[in-house]
Design goal:
single chain, about 350 residues, alpha/beta, Rossmann fold, 2 domains, ten-stranded mixed β-sheet, two-stranded antiparallel sheet, about 30% helix, about 25% strand, binds adenosine-5'-diphosphate, binds 6-O-phosphono-alpha-D-glucopyranose
């Protein structure tokens, strides 16, 4: 028999500033689950939602309580909690988690207005992505797993220039000014959420080139909390040891400045964590298999799955560096967590049926 409680929605939170690679991350994540997520069919063309067979990704901008004009009038930014309806966010995430469909508002990024709501049905996996998934403690408590994308200012700037200057025709000065203007609210309301994340991906400038400020070669750190239910960190060679590894040599083609990996236990906001770091980038993507084969606890279903995922999406930004590698690893870890939660749920259903 199937009661409503058999349908369990696993809820994942992904926090990051806008323009920090959330959509790329979502494409890699849904690909690990075996299907590309697409906008809802026949709905509002400006919907921010993405749906695949297993996963629904909702954008938390849809919970803006003030539209663009309202924010201007009150002098608050979209990052300010006063521009967002956390009561509604909580009610709706809670409903979806317990198997109940909701009419979710739509924030229209083109017009800056709130559009009529859209129906969201409870998926197997619900991802809530945006500025504040871990801000409100009630919403935070609903998350089965949480991720924070921590992009350093230098890298944020390099990415913004690439997108807003090259594709949208903005000036260097206006990009600088918009990053500066966001900074106080970003520091007050967005950044503090990283202490609550189960995994944090930090993206920093390389240390392989002295004084590099180009932001092209990246040092990426994956910070993974210990003691999280259904999640255990990835490691290199020997669990709990501190390892530093330069894999360039006979088996890996590395041009300047090469690749450096490291891994080991650390603390982060008072929590025990394992940190895996990759500085530099791959010359030949298929050689990632050499690095993959030395990683442990990656939750792949078969040998070479990470490399296959990266090769499948080699056109996505960051496929040749730590961002692509760690995004894919987090995807595999979430798949594992999902199966664990479902298995536990089924077991307890069987046990309660017996009694
Ligand atoms: P968001 O969804 O958070 O707004 P996107 O995934 O659309 O961010 O990425 C915004 C831009 O940042 C991309 O167009 C790309 O130029 C750059 N970018 C994102 N991720 C990476 C990456 N891993 N490496 C290099 N550039 C990236
Ligand atoms: C952030 C929010 C968006 C908002 C944008 C600009 O990126 O995620 O929802 O549209 O800021 O805000 P503005 O008030 O200028 O429209």
């Amino acid at each position: 028999t199937c009661s409503a409680g058999d349908q369990q929605t696993v809820v994942i939170g992904l926090a990051a500033d806008s323009g920090c690679g959330k959509s790329t991350f979502m494409r890699r994540l849904t690909s690990v689950f075996g299907g590309a997520a697409k906008p809802p069919r026949g709905g509002n063309p400006d919907s921010n939602t993405l749906i695949s067979d297993t996963t629904t990704v909702i954008c938390l901008d849809d919970y803006h309580s003030l539209d663009r004009t309202g924010r201007k009038q009150k002098g608050v930014t979209a990052l300010d909690p006063r521009a967002n309806d956390f009561d509604l966010m909580y009610e709706q995430v809670k409903a979806l988690k317990s198997g109940i469909a909701v009419e979710k508002p739509i924030y229209n990024h083109v017009t800056g207005l709130l559009d009529p709501p859209e129906l969201i049905k409870p998926p197997k996996i619900l991802v809530i992505e945006g500025l504040h998934p871990m801000y409100d403690s009630r919403v935070r408590d609903l998350l089965d797993f949480s991720i924070y994308l921590d992009i350093s200012n230098e890298v944020k700037f390099a990415w913004k220039i690439q997108r807003d200057m090259a594709e949208r025709g903005h000036s260097l000065e206006s990009i600088k000014a918009s990053i500066e203007a966001r900074k106080p609210d970003f520091d007050a309301y967005i950044d503090p959420q990283k202490q609550y994340a189960d995994a944090v991906m930090e993206v920093l400038p390389t240390r392989l080139i002295p004084n590099d400020d180009e932001g092209k070669i990246l040092r990426v750190r994956l910070i993974m909390k210990e003691g999280i239910e259904n999640f255990s960190p990835v490691y290199l060679f020997d669990e709990g040891s501190t390892i530093s590894w330069i894999p360039c040599g006979r088996k890996l083609s590395c041009s300047y400045p090469g690749i450096r990996l490291s891994c080991g236990p650390q603390t982060y906001f008072g929590h025990e964590v394992t940190v895996m770091e990759m500085d530099g980038q791959f010359d030949k993507l298929d050689e990632l298999i050499y690095v993959e084969s030395h990683l442990s606890n990656i939750s792949t279903k078969y040998y070479g799955e990470i490399t296959q995922q990266i090769l499948m999406h080699s056109d996505f930004p960051g496929s040749n560096n730590g961002t692509g590698l760690f995004q894919t690893i987090i995807g595999l870890k979430i798949r594992h967590l999902y199966h664990q939660i479902i298995a536990t749920k089924q077991l307890s259903n069987i046990q309660s049926a017996k009694t």
